[in-house]
Amino acid sequence: MHLSGESGYKKKTMRQIKVGIINVSGYAGVELARLIHQHEYAELCWVTGRSMAGRKVGDMFPHLFDIKLAIDAEPGDADVVFSALPHKASAEVVLPLVRRGIRTIDISADFRLKNSEEYTKWYGVTHLCPELLQEAVYGLPELHRAQIKSAHLVANPGCYPTSAILALAPAVKEGIIQPDIIVDSKSGVSGAGRSLSVATHYSEENESVSAYALAGHRHLPEIVQELETQSGGSSLSVTFIPHLVPMTRGILSTCYASLVDGRVKDGKTMAEQVRQVYSDFYREEPFVRVVDASPKTKYTWGSNFCLVYPTVDDRTRRLVVVSCIDNLVKGAAGQAIQNMNLMFGFPEDTGLNSLPIFP
Amino acid sequence: MHLSGESGYKKKTMRQIKVGIINVSGYAGVELARLIHQHEYAELCWVTGRSMAGRKVGDMFPHLFDIKLAIDAEPGDADVVFSALPHKASAEVVLPLVRRGIRTIDISADFRLKNSEEYTKWYGVTHLCPELLQEAVYGLPELHRAQIKSAHLVANPGCYPTSAILALAPAVKEGIIQPDIIVDSKSGVSGAGRSLSVATHYSEENESVSAYALAGHRHLPEIVQELETQSGGSSLSVTFIPHLVPMTRGILSTCYASLVDGRVKDGKTMAEQVRQVYSDFYREEPFVRVVDASPKTKYTWGSNFCLVYPTVDDRTRRLVVVSCIDNLVKGAAGQAIQNMNLMFGFPEDTGLNSLPIFP
Amino acid sequence: MHLSGESGYKKKTMRQIKVGIINVSGYAGVELARLIHQHEYAELCWVTGRSMAGRKVGDMFPHLFDIKLAIDAEPGDADVVFSALPHKASAEVVLPLVRRGIRTIDISADFRLKNSEEYTKWYGVTHLCPELLQEAVYGLPELHRAQIKSAHLVANPGCYPTSAILALAPAVKEGIIQPDIIVDSKSGVSGAGRSLSVATHYSEENESVSAYALAGHRHLPEIVQELETQSGGSSLSVTFIPHLVPMTRGILSTCYASLVDGRVKDGKTMAEQVRQVYSDFYREEPFVRVVDASPKTKYTWGSNFCLVYPTVDDRTRRLVVVSCIDNLVKGAAGQAIQNMNLMFGFPEDTGLNSLPIFP
Amino acid sequence: MHLSGESGYKKKTMRQIKVGIINVSGYAGVELARLIHQHEYAELCWVTGRSMAGRKVGDMFPHLFDIKLAIDAEPGDADVVFSALPHKASAEVVLPLVRRGIRTIDISADFRLKNSEEYTKWYGVTHLCPELLQEAVYGLPELHRAQIKSAHLVANPGCYPTSAILALAPAVKEGIIQPDIIVDSKSGVSGAGRSLSVATHYSEENESVSAYALAGHRHLPEIVQELETQSGGSSLSVTFIPHLVPMTRGILSTCYASLVDGRVKDGKTMAEQVRQVYSDFYREEPFVRVVDASPKTKYTWGSNFCLVYPTVDDRTRRLVVVSCIDNLVKGAAGQAIQNMNLMFGFPEDTGLNSLPIFP
What domains sit in chain A, N to C, each tagged with a CATH number? Predict the structure, then answer.
C-alpha cells in the first residue's frame, strides 16, 4: 500500500505558463498570488507593488511565507499578466502590455463598460483607450465563456456584479420577470480593500450594519449592461443598494422582481418552475450551484463557488433570488484564475477546486 | 462649587409604581429588568422565569448584580406587568391579569394582530381570547400615542415591524409611493433570542450572512396591518425578507417603493421633498430622528432611538428608506418602557434618555 | 398614581460645574462627552478637536446628536478640564491650565509616572514640566481616593494598568505573593484609538488574535510603580504582555504569581483565603466587584465596573487573578468622571450608575 | 503553450487508500472529510454520524456538496479509520477496530495519556483498555515522527497541547528554562465544538473574552506529559489557563518561563540565542515556522502551519513564546492527516499544502 514518495499536488510540470501580477499589495492581488502559487500549470514569476518594492512578498504578507519573490517596481515579461491596480491607473499600465501582445486580465473597472461615456460618467475620468473597450471581454465565464477563450484582454467583473448578474441572468434571459429590479447586497469588509478609512476601522465597523452609496454605486452600470444583454437589449430599471456587514469575506445579494403574468404555469408551484429555469441555465456550470434552501455566505468561504437560491413570494408573485459568493475569490481573484484557465485551455477548475472552509 | 452629597440620578421617589416582569429569562426580559432598575418612577417588585425560579437575577445575569430579587415561579401584584413570554404562552398568562384589571404590556405577538384569523394563519394556533384583540392597542407610540395613554393592554410591536413601519409610515400616509413595497431587513443575532440553535451557534453564525423565512415571516402581517391603516385602508403588496448578520444588536431595514407620479414637484429635488415629508411627520417625536446621511445601526446601540434616512434613486424614481434601531431597546424593551411612561403619565423619555454607546 | 410631569433623570440643577474637553475627537474624548452630557452636576461647555474645529459634535459623532456644541480650536474657561490629547501634546496644553489654577484631569500618560527619567525612557521625550509630577495624583480611586479629592492635577490611569493594578493590589499589599508576576492582558480594539492603522483595519483584525509590544509596553512602568507602592517599596519583577482580540470594548487581564509559603493557612482552601483578602480590600468600593466565578468582559460592557476573580491553581500553588473592565469607561472616560466626582464632592457614582448592557 | 486537458490536482490514482471517519458530525469530523476529499492518495469511503445517519454529507454540511456519501450508522471496512467521537465513546469504538488490525487515528483524548490513573482523574471514567495506552503513539510528528510511521494506533493531540508543546519543547529539551511555566492560551470558539451551549451562543460570546476551566483543564496533563518527556523526566510546574475569544478558528498561546542562569551567553542578545535554539530544533519541520515578529492567528487560518515566536523579556530574564495554529487543522484534522501521511509513507505534506487564507 505504501507509495513511492513522488509528487504532492503542487507538482509543477515543465509546461507552466509564466504569470505576473501588477500591484500585489491589495487584497485582490494578494489573493491572486496565493491562488497562482497553488496552480498546477502556472508559475508566479514576478509581482509589482508601488509602496512595497524591494520587500519580499512573505515579509509583507506573512501567510505567503512560501513565496520567495521580491516585489518589483516595474512589470517584467510573462505569458499572462493580472492587473490589480485601481481604475485609471490600471488602464495606463495595461495599455502598453496589450499593445505588446501580452494577454491581460484586468481586475479593475477600466474595461468592463462597453460605453466610454458611461465610464466617464461613473468614474469621473476620460477613458485612456476607448478603442479597447469593444475588444475587451467581460470576464464572467457563465455568460461569455467562448469569447473569453480567445480574448487578449479580459475585464474581470466587480464583486457585486458577479453576485447580482448570476442571481438574475436566468430570469432576465427567460423573460419571466418584469423590468423593475431591486438588488440589495450585503458585503464583507474586505470588499472595501486594504486602504485605510474610518469606515473600515475595526471599532467603527464591528457590531454595525450600514447602507452606502445610495446616490449610485459604480457597480450599477455593469449590472445593467450585462443584464440588458441577457434581456435582448430591452431596458431594465435597476436599483442597487450595497451594504457593509461586520465580516471579512462574503457577499450575499437579495434580488427582487415581479413575475411576468402568464409565464409561470400551473401544475408546479411558481417556485418549482422558477427553480427549473435556474437549474437548466446553470446545468453545466462548474462553479454555480442552484441550491434548494436559503444559503449562507459561509458556505462559499475561501472557494470559487456561487450559490444561487431562487424562490417566489407567493402572496405578491415576486421572484426573490439570494446569491452568495466569496467576494475575493469568485468576486475577484478566483474568477480571474478561472478566466486564465479558459484563455490557456486548462481545465476550467484548475487551482480552484478547494472546497469552502467551514466553520 | 461643592455640592451637598444628596442624590444620584437613581433617586427613587416615594411615588414609584410597582412593576412585575413575566419571564425575565430571555433577552427582552433581561433588558426590561435593566431599564426598569434605572427608571426614576418605577420599582421592579418581582420577576418570574420558568427554569430559573429560586435563583437570584444577578446570579443568572451577572451584569444585573445590583438587582437583588430572586426569580419567582408565579406573578405577584403590580401596577403594571410586562410579559416577555413567547406567543400563546403569553396570552394564557396575560388574560387573567387583564381580567383582574392590571395594566399589561405584552412583548409577545399575541395581541398585535387585530384579525384573529390572521393570527391563526401565521401562528398556527387559535387565539385564546379574540375578544381582547380590539381592546389591545398596538404599542407604537408614533402612530397610536393617544390610545396607548388610556390602554389597559398594550401589544408591544415586533422588532422588524418597528423598523419597517417607522421607515414607511410617512410615505404611505402621504400617498407618495405606489403600493408595491420591498422591505429588506438585516438583524443582529440577539433578535433570535436566547434559545440555543445551530443557526445562532457562534461558529456557524460568525463571518456569515443569510436570508431566512423566505416563505413568510410572522412579522409581515403586523407590517401590513399598520401600514394599511396609514394608507387609509387601501391594500399594499409587501415583500419582507429578514437577514441575519454577525453582530449582537441592531436592525437596519432598507425599504423600496416607486414614487407616485406627479406627487413630487419640481424646484426641490425629489429627495429633498421626500425628506420634508418625513421631517414633518416626525417633528415632535422624541425618539425618531430623520437624518441626512446613511446611518449605521451602531449609532443607536443601547438606546431607544430610531434613525430614518429617506432618499430617492433618481434614475428609477424609487424611494429608498433606511432605518436603524437597537432591536432590544426600541425594538423591544425600550419601546415597552416608552409605552409604560405614556400609560402612567410620566415624561415619555423617562429612563430612556441614555445616548447610544459608541464605538 | 399618575405623577406630575416634572423632570427626567437628566434634570440639571443650577449648581452644575462647567466642563471642557480638550481633543474630543478620539474614543476617550467622545466617551467623556457622552458621560458628561448625562451627568447631573456637570455641564459640557466646550470641546476642542484639532482637525474637526468648526464642525458640530453631533455631525462628527452621530450618536451624540443631542450635543449641540460646535468643536472649538482652543480651550475656553471651565471649572474642570479633561485633556484627551496624546502624551507630550497633552502636557503642553495642560501646563498653562494648571498654572491658571484650573483643575485638570489628564487622560494621557504625561503625569502618571513619578520619575521623569522613567518617562523619558518609555516615551522618548524629555518631560516638559517634571516639577508637576509629584503634585499630580495617580487617579485610581481605589488606591488614592483621599489625594484625588484635593488634587488639582489628576493623571488618569491607562486602561491596562487599571485592570492589572486592581487585579493585583490586594495580593501585593497583603504580601501573599512572591515578586515574580505575569500579567497577560487581552484588549478590544478600541484601546488602540481612532487613528487608522493596518493593525486595526477591520479585515486584518477580525478573526485574529495577536500579542504585541513584546519588547515592552508603555503601560508597564505604571503597573510597576503602583504595585511597588502597595508592596511597601520592595521590588517586583513584572512581565506584561498585551494582546489584541477581535472585539471593540473590554480588557481582560489574567495575572499569575506564586503564593508565599506559609501565608495561606489551613482550614479554608487557599482559594477561599485569597478571596477573603480581596473581598476585604474592596469591601467599600462602589465600582469593584470581587466575583466568585470567572467573569466575561461582556459583563462590564458600557459600565464603570471592574470585576475581579481571584483563585488558586492548587497543583502549583499559584495565584491566578482575572479582572475585566470596559477599557473606555473604567479604563478611561468613566474613571475620569469618577475622579471629577471625587474632586468636586459629588457622590462618587454620579453619572456612572448605568448597569452594563448585555448581551 | 496550451496544454491538453488532463487532470486537475485532484487526480486520484488507483493506489488510493480507503478511509473511514467515525462521527463526521462535529467540527473535527467535518474538517477531516474536507481534507480527505482533497487528498491525492486517499479516498473517503464511509462516514458515520450518530444523529445524522441516512442523510447525505452535503445536505448536513452544505460546503461539502461535492461529497456524495450518505452518513452511515456503523463503521465499514477501511485501510485507516479516524475517530472523531468524544472521549470514552471513542475508546469503545476504536478498541474493536484496533483488534481487527485496522490502523486507527483517534482524535479524542482516550489514548493520549500514558498513565491510566491520570486518565481516570481528569476524565472521570476508568479506561476501557489501559493495555493499549503504551502501544498508542502520541501523534505530534515534531516529537514522535519515527514512532508514528509504524504505529497502529495514533492518539491525535489536543488543540491546546499542540500549540503549547510546540511553543515550549525546544526550551525544555535544551534546558534553558526553569521548571515554572505559565501557558496562557486564547482560542476561537470552534474549539468548543458543535454542541450547543449558552457559552457558545452567538449573542453571549460575541464582543467578549473570558477565561475558563481555572480549576484545571483536561489538556493540562497532556502538556505536562509531553514536556516532561522532553525534559528528560524532570518534573515541571505548569499552570495552563485557556480563554475563549470571539472568533471561529485559531489558538494563540503565550508561554512564560524564567531563563536558567548561565545558559544563555553574551555576544548575542538573549533573544537571538533563544531564537537559534528554536530554529535548530525545527529546522527540518514542514509545518512549524520560527518567525521573527509576533504572529497573528490569522496567518495560519485554514492551514496546517504552526508559527512560533520565541523572545525574551530582558528586564525580567523571562522567555516569552507565542505560538499560533488553526485549531481545527494543525490542532485537529490537519494533524491527523499528517499522521496518516506518515503512517502510509506518503509525502508528509500531501493534502496539507494549502497556504493560509488571508484576510
Answer: 18-135 (3.40.50.720), 160-327 (3.30.360.10)
